[in-house]
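Input:
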Amino acid sequence: MRLPPMIASLTRHKLTVLLMLLATAFTSAIITNIASMVAHRLALLNAPSGIDESSIVLIDSAWIKTAQFGSKSDRDFWPEYQADLHALRGAAGVKSAAVVNGMPFWGGGSSVGVGTTVDDVANAPVYASAFMGGPAAIGTLGLKFVQGRNFSRTDYVRGGHEKVAATIISRALAQRLFHTSHVVGRLIYTHAQKPMRVVGVVAHLMGTSPGLGAADNEYAMLWPVELGGNSVTFALRTAPAERAQVLKQAVALLGMRNPHRIFDDARTFTQMRAKYFRRYSSMVSLLLATGFGLLLVTAAGMAGLTSFWVQQRTRSIGIRRALGATRVDILRYTHLENLLIVTVGILLGCVLAYGLNLQLMKYYALQTLPPSYLVIGAIALWLMGQLAVLAPSLRAGAVPPAVATRSG
Amino acid sequence: MHLFRHYLKLALRNLLDSKVLTTLIVLAIGLGIGASMTMITVLHVMSGDPMPARSARLFYPHLDVGPANANFDFGRAFTWSDVNNLLRAHRAVRQAMMAGGRVVISPGEQIKPFFSSGRYASSEFFAMFDAPFAAGSHWTAKADTNRARVVVLNSELAQRLFGSAAAAVGQPLRIQDQEFRVVGVLNDWHPVPLFYSASGGAYAFKSEDHFFLPLTTAMDIKLRPSGEACWGGGGYTGDQCTWVQFWVELDTPAQIDAYRRFLVGYWREQKMHGRFPRNLPPDLYGLMQRLRLKHLVPSQVTLQLWLALGFLGVCLFNTIGLMLAKFLRRAGEVGVRRALGARRRDIFAQLGVEAGILGLAGGLLGLLLTWFGLWLVRQRPEAYAQLAHLDLTMVLGVFVLAVVTSVLAGLLPAWRACRIPPALQLKIQ
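Output:
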C-alpha cells in the first residue's frame, strides 16, 4: 500500500480529517497526563511507612477527669500506662506493646521546626513530624535501623518533651539536614533550650501527613518520652491474622482495668493507612474513568466519521473490488488510513501533552511527564482507533464489486 | 413559526433516519455535559456564601503579629492578649472572639461519656452570626466576665442528651468534669463551610459545632483550644502563639472606614512597644474574601474541573465531526432543495434546528449523567462530597450548556452543508 494516494484521498476531506486529528491530539494529551497522575498517586499509595504495618493495631485512649484523680490537668498517668502495658503484654496474641503519641498517616498532628544550628531553627527551620514513644515503641513498630542503635534506658524522659536529649531520625531527614546518613552523634536543634543528639537512623519513617509530591513526606523523628498525658495511643504488635481479635480483647481489657476513660478509636494500622489515603485512591478511580470516557467518546467520533467515508466511497470501493482488490485489501486500506490519522494526531498530542503538563504543574502537585507515558498513550490510541474503525471497515469490505456498475 | 414547525418535523425525521450517528452524537454531548456539569456543581456548592443575608456586614481583622523572618501568615488568628484588647475596645457594632475545642461530655448513667467538638466564644457570637435559638437564649456579657459555667447546645446534641430542645434548657451537664448549665439550644444552624473557624480545606466542610461555651470559662478551667500556631515559648496564652479568631460586624461604609483606622492605630501603638516586627499593615477582610484566602476549595476539585472541561472539549470535537458526517451525508437532498429554490439561509436554519434538537437530547442524557455523577461524588470520602446536590439553577445550566454546545458544534457543519452547490449534486443524480 502506498501512502501518497491515501493522503491525496484524505485531502478531499480536509475538514473531517482535521476534526479527527484534533480529537485524537487532545485525547492523547489528556490521557497521557492522566496516566502520569495515576502513576504518581499509586507511587504514594504504595510508599513504605517504615512501620511493620500488617502486624500493628492502635487504640486511642483518653481519661475522663474525675474526682478520683483530682481536677489537676497536669497529672502524670505514666504509672497507670505502665501497668496497662504490663497487662496487655500478658494478653493472648500480643507480642509487644507500647504507648505512643503520633503516627504516620495520623493526619494533622504537630510538626516541629528543626535545624543543625540555633540560627537554622530561627531562620530556616526544616519541619519534621515528631513521634513520641516509651520503651518498646521502636521494637513494637518494627522500625529498621540503617545506622546507630535504639534508645537506651537512660534516654527516656518523663513529662514534657522539652527535656528530650536523644533522638532517632529517618534517613530522609538525615539527608536533608546533614546531606549524609552517617549522622549518629550529631546534634539537632529545636526551639527547646538544649539540642538533642542523634542516636540512630531508620531506613524509612513516614511523617504524620504525607502528601502528593511533597519532598518532606519522610521528614520524621522519634523522641524517647514516657508519656503521661491525658490522651495517648496504645500500639500493639500481633500476628496479622489475629489483629481483629487482639483489638477487641485489648479494648475490653483496658476498659476493665479502669472505666474512667474513652477508647475513641481502635483500628489496625492498615485501616488507618487506607482511610488516610482514601481520597487519593478515589481520585485514581476518577482519573481512570475520565481516561476511558475520553477514549470512548473519541472512538465513537472516529467510528461515525469512518462510516461516513465508507458510505461516500461505496462506489469507488466497488470499482476497486471489480478491478481485483480483495476484501482484505479494502479492510487494510481503512485500517491503515486510521493508523495514519491517529499517528499524526498522537504526534500533535505529544506537543500538547507537554504544554498541558507545564500548565498544570504551575498550579497542582504534578510531576514532569516522563516520556514513557507518551508511548503508553500512543498504544492506547492506536488500539482505540483500530477497534473504532472495525465495524465501518467490515462494511466497506462487504461492498460487492457489482456496485461499480451502478450509478449514483 | 410555521416554517420552524416544518424544520422541526424534518429534523425529527432525519434524526430517526440515521440512528447510529444520532446515538453517537447524543452520547458524545451527554457524556461531555455530564462530566463537566458534575464538577461545576461541586465547585458551585463549595464556593457558595454560607450567610447570604449577613456576609456583607461581617469582617475579619487581619493583623500579622509573627516574627520578622516568618514565612507563614500569623494573621490567620490572634494572640490571647491582642484579641482581648480588640474585644475590650468594642469599636464595632458587634464583635466576638472564638476558638475550636474538643471536650469530654459525661451525661450520666444512661449514656457513656463521649468526645464532642464545639466552640469557645464570647457572648455576641450568636447575635452577630444570627444563630437562631430553638429554646433558651445565648449567655450574657456578664457571663463572659464571670467565667460562668454555661453552655449552648446545637439541636442534635440537645436531642441526644435530653430528648428535646425545650427539655435541655436549665439542665445541668458535666463537661470535662465541670458542672455546666444549659442556657440555650440552637435551632438547626449549620453554616457551610464553617466560615468562622480557623480550619481551612476539607475540615471546614465536614465539621460542625455541637456546643458553645464562654472562651473565658474555657481558659479558666484550662480547656485546650485547637489550632495553635506558635513561633516561640510561652505557651498558648503568651505573646508568641496565635489561635483565637475574631470577627466584627460593621453595617455602614463609615463604620468600616472607622474600624480600619482603629486597627491601624492599634497596630502603630503596639509597634511602639516592639511588637508586629513584620511591618505588614493591618487589613480588614470581608467574609467571602476571608474564605477565598483560606483556599477552601481543594486544588483536587479545580483539577477535576479542568479535566472535565478538557473532556467536554474532546466531546465537542467529536460532536462537530459527527454532525458534519450527518449533514454531508444528505448532500444530495440538500442539493435538490437548493436547486428547487431553498436559500442557503433556509438550509442553515433547518440544520441549526436539527443541531438544537440533538443538543436537547444530549442535555437530557447529560442531566441523567450529572445526577449519576453527583451520586458517585457523594459516595467519595471527601468532606465536601455530601454537599454535591443538583439545584434548579444547575439543572437549567445543564440544558443551557448542552444546547449552546451543540448549536455551536452544529455551526461549522451547517455552514459547510449550506455551501453545497445545487447544480453539481443534480448532475450526479
